[in-house]
Specification:
The complex is a heterodimer of chains A (168) and B (350).
Chain A (H helix, E strand, L loop, with lengths): L2 H19 L17 H4 L7 H19 L4 H20 L12 H4 L1 H24 L5 H26 L4
Chain B lengths: L1 H9 L1 H20 L1 H29 L1 H31 L14 E9 L8 E3 L12 E3 L4 E8 L4 E5 L7 E5 L5 E5 L7 E8 L9 E4 L11 E10 L5 E8 L8 E5 L5 H11 L7 H66 L1
Antiparallel strand pairs in B: 1-2, 1-12, 2-5, 3-4, 3-12, 4-5, 6-7, 6-9, 7-8, 8-11, 9-10, 10-11
Helix pairs in contact in B: 2-3
The chains are: A mainly alpha (168), B alpha+beta (350).
């Protein structure tokens, strides 16, 4: 049990509790529900094994599915962003960054970090809500859910990043 | 091989990713009714259209066999058509089916013409059915087109028919439209022309009017077509029309005829015979009287028979009585005898 594993386990637990108990009850405009469990994938530092990220993403998605009765939707979406996270992080990584740097405001810069989080959240919500709707008939509503959820989740993550996460 | 393993290990996260996604989707489609139904519908559509495309392609590959099969099928059907045509032709020879003017209740005996003359004054037709088939003289003979003639003589298996084409033939007829009646006679000459006489002058006659039987005779039911009016002339005495009638029946090709066997009414026949035939000296009244006396005789005979029966029974009874009496007397006699014996015995003992 490495401390980094315990830290991830703790983060997983806290995120799931908040997501299931609080954010799942949020239906802004009737449709927009943020998925802050995506924050789990946002936080992986550079050089983390891709297998680790995939497994963590799958597990958090799966547990979320169990609690919110959305079998397969969140696990598929979280696995997808777990897959693209390392590549995306590589794009945003500054040239002089450390080998194992963690994506934060400080390491990436404010706007880069926001963009990084927004892209991941867009993919997460896009996959989730498309799987949920499974049709393009009401595409306006689906798009509203995706866009609103992405933006709201990004704002929440920024909030967590600014005020909740312990500074080193 | 090693390179392959290296490749697999290097890209293990891809395989893991695919595995996890597949697991997620399995969950998605297993536990969400809506997604499941959409998935299956779409999948069925996709599979269906794929099969469609595939069968569209592969059907060309089997065209040869298909053609062979179709050809065989065609051959079979063609044979069947020929067979059916033959059967149909055979069925159509049956003149009954084509006489639609005749009501159903008439029994028809189908017969074939075995001999006929056309150009004599007394033309006759021989048909191959006779008394054995229920044919009697003076029954009507028709063919599918119309009236042929009247049965003249019968033997066991053959009958002679006097056709319309006989100078002695006389068939009562009427015009279908106006119902004026006359009688149809034949004059030597054409084998397809007869003449309707006694059509009154005031009758409205047109060419092509249909001439049919009128049902006055007990030979033909009314309404059987005979021919149509071809020409209108005056009779020699000028009192009536003489209509030239083109016969419907084509005697030159006549093969199948039918004899109407149940139209004749014996009662009517008898009555008419009585009325028309003074030579027999038997009036209808006489006949009735005769019948009465016959009945009386019959009654008398019956009575006699009854009396005889009663007498017989009485005799029988008496006989029985006498018999029992005799038996009784006999028994008494026996008893008396034995009693006498006993007394005799006692006497001797004494």
């Amino acid at each position: 049990m490495s401390p980094i594993f315990l830290q991830r386990l703790f983060r997983l637990f806290v995120l799931l509790v908040f997501q299931v108990l609080i954010f799942n009850q949020v239906h802004l405009l009737g449709y927009i529900t943020p998925l802050v469990i995506g924050y789990m994938m946002v936080c992986f530092h550079r050089g983390t094994s891709r297998v680790d990220i995939l497994l963590w993403g799958f597990i958090i998605g799966l547990i979320y599915d169990v609690f919110s009765n959305t079998a397969g939707m969140a696990s598929a979406s979280c696995t997808l962003i777990a897959m693209i996270q390392p590549s995306l992080l590589k794009i945003f990584t500054p040239r002089d960054a450390a080998e194992n740097f963690t994506p934060t405001f400080q390491t990436l810069g404010f706007w880069s970090y926001v963009l990084y989080v927004l892209i991941l959240m867009a993919v997460l919500h896009g996959t989730f809500y498309l799987l949920d709707a499974f049709t393009l008939v009401n595409w306006q509503l689906t798009l509203l859910s995706i866009a609103g959820g992405s933006v709201l989740s990004t704002l929440l993550i920024i909030f967590i990043e600014l005020f909740v996460r312990p500074r080193k | 091989m090693r390179a392959l393993f290296d490749l697999l290990i290097k890209n293990k996260h891809w395989f893991l990713f695919l595995l996890l996604e597949v697991i997620s989707l399995v969950f998605l489609f297993s536990y969400n009714g809506y997604q499941k139904s959409v998935y299956f519908t779409t999948a069925n559509d996709v599979v269906g259209s794929t099969y469609n495309v595939i069968s569209g392609i592969t059907s060309y590959l089997h065209l040869k066999e298909e053609n062979h099969a179709l050809e065989a099928c065609n051959e079979r059907l063609r044979q069947k058509v020929v067979e059916m045509q033959q059967r149909l032709a055979a069925a159509q020879l049956d003149s009954v089916k084509r006489i639609d003017v005749l009501p159903q209740e008439f029994n028809l005996v189908n017969a074939q013409v075995v001999n006929m003359t056309l150009h004599k004054a007394n033309n006759l037709i021989t048909i191959n059915k006779g008394e054995a088939d229920g044919i009697q003289p003076e029954m009507g003979v028709v063919c599918s087109r119309g009236v042929v003639g009247i049965v003249y003589m019968t033997s066991r298996h053959y009958s002679i028919v006097m056709p319309l084409l006989n100078v002695n033939s006389k068939v009562s007829c009427r015009l279908r439209k106006s119902e004026y009646f006359g009688s149809l006679i034949w004059k030597r000459g054409h084998a397809d022309i007869s003449y309707a006489t006694s059509i009154p002058r005031h009758a409205k006659v047109q060419k092509k009017d249909i001439v049919e039987t009128n049902g006055f005779s007990d030979i033909f039911p009314p309404g059987i077509p005979i021919g149509y009016v071809q020409g209108i002339d005056d009779s020699s005495d000028g009192m009536s029309y003489l209509l030239r009638v083109k016969l419907f029946a084509n005697f030159a090709t006549l093969r199948e005829v039918s004899v109407i066997t149940n139209y004749q009414s014996p009662e009517r026949h008898f009555l008419e015979e009585q009325a028309e035939n003074p030579a027999k000296q038997d009036s209808v009244l006489n006949a009735q009287e005769k019948q009465k006396t016959l009945e009386e005789e019959k009654r008398k005979a019956e009575e006699q028979e009854k009396a005889a029966k009663e007498k017989e029974e009485k005799e029988k009874e008496e006989l029985e009585k006498i018999k029992t009496e005799l038996e009784r007397q006999h028994a008494e006699a026996v008893a008396a005898q034995s009693a006498n014996k006993n007394t005799e015995n006692t006497d001797t003992v004494r």
